[in-house]
Every structure is written in C-alpha cells, then in structure tokens.
C-alpha cells in the first residue's frame, strides 16, 4: 500500500492500481468507504482530480484523460472493456493520454484481464517518484485545504434550469450530460458533480440490470458537453455492452 499510495487528501487518495495498465493509469479512491458523497467529499474529489491531472501533465506531458468507474457493479471474469476491481471501495480509474505512449488504455482493456501485460512495477519507480513530487509541489496552490474550506468552496450555480440531463442512447445505455458547457472535468462545480451522481443513482435497474459500468469523457471540441456513459450490467448478460462502446467514435478517440 505504501508503494501504491501517491497522495492522500481529506476524503480521497491518489494511488497506483495493483496492476497499472499504462504509466498514466492512476486511481482516485475513497480513504473511508463509508464516506457519503456530499458537498465536501465532492469538492475534495474535484481537488484531487485537478491535482493529479496537473501532476500527470508535468511528468508525462498528458493533456487528455478519460475516467472509468463502476456503480453497484463488480467486473467479472475477463472484464473486457473495464479495469478489474481492486476492492469494494468507491474507485475512479484515471487514464491519462500523451504523445509517445507505448500502449493505450483501450488496447489494454480490449484484452481479457488475464492477458493484459500492464506496466511492471520496477518500470514505474521513477515515474511514481516524480508524480509524488509533482503532487506535493502542487498542493500549496490548492483552493481548499481543510474540511471547512471544502464546504465553503461550494459555489451556487447560476440559473434555474436543471444542472444535468439524461439521454437514452440505446438498450441499457444512458448518457448523463452536464447542462453547462466547459472544457474539462476540472471546470465542473461540486453542485454539478453531485447532480450527475444523483442522476446516475436514479437510473432504473430494469431487465435484470444490477449495476452500471461508467465512462466519463471530456469534450474533444467546443459545443460538446461533458458526458458520462452509463451502461447497465448484469451477471446474466448475453452481450458485454462495453465492447461496442469502446469501438464507438467518441470513446475510441479517448481510450484507444
């Protein structure tokens, strides 16, 4: 655990997965699984996301990231299209992308879990040391420094309309979009992040759906909203919906 941990904040920690698929594969996970996803923990998640994105840019030159996570779902078997679960703790997999990467997240995720080569631990020692240093250096510039500051950082969102909208994109496929447009996940506000989480939690689990595999994508061009693709999953499913999603133009650009 000490080798994997890169940084710990108020509610979340930034860490390496046990089997990183690329040098840009890191986790943002809850330190205490019982923590409620509320304003303070949402603000701290956004802080950790900004911090690790800046560190990945400093160390790897990463300019783009995709995020994958499971909601009430535990990847099974070959886990095609999704990272294997490390524990039941709420975890977000951050996949950074940069020029010159030797493998891509999508290439790894398209393989069965047991065939993913990943990156050997010894090859990441230098990168992880540099990430820890970048995270430590980035910390003093953070906008929030304590639980009280996190609560105070919650700003009201102007306008009376809904903060997010949901779009039916196909069987067991829902797209959750932020109503306000911004360039990166780091620009989202805690209230909007909570609204997206609420929309995900309210999705119907019909037709045997027991949970969701989720992919959060930043817009590749102006006029395109931040999107979270939520795919209904079931242990009895005949087709893995992630296989088709990975081949879709929007997702393949982000992960493949």
Structure write-up:
The chain has a 9-stranded antiparallel beta sheet, with helices on both faces. The protein has helices at 39-60, 105-109, 121-138, 147-152, 190-201, 241-247, 249-255, and strands at 5-8, 12-15, 25-30, 64-71, 91-97, 164-170, 173-178, 211-217, 227-233. The protein is α+β, with helices and mostly antiparallel strands and 256 residues long. The chain is built from 7 helices and 9 strands; from the N terminus they run βββαββαααββαββαα.
Brief overview:
The protein has 256 residues and is an alpha+beta fold.
Overall shape: it is: globular
- N-to-C terminal Cα separation, in Å? 29 Å
Instruction: Tell me the helix content.
Output: 25-40%
Radius of gyration: 17 Å
Query: What's the total count of β strands?
Result: 9
Spatial strand arrangement across the major sheet: 1-2-3-5-4-8-9-7-6
Biggest sheet statistics = 9 strands, antiparallel
Question: Strand-and-helix sequence, N→C?
Answer: EEEHEEHHHEEHEEHH
> In terms of per-residue confidence, which ranges show pLDDT below 50 for 5 or more consecutive residues?
142-156
List the helices and strands and how they pair.
Blueprint: E1 5-8, E2 12-15, E3 25-30, H1 39-60, E4 64-71, E5 91-97, H2 105-109, H3 121-138, H4 147-152, E6 164-170, E7 173-178, H5 190-201, E8 211-217, E9 227-233, H6 241-247, H7 249-255
Antiparallel strand pairs: 1-2, 2-3, 3-5, 4-5, 4-8, 6-7, 7-9, 8-9
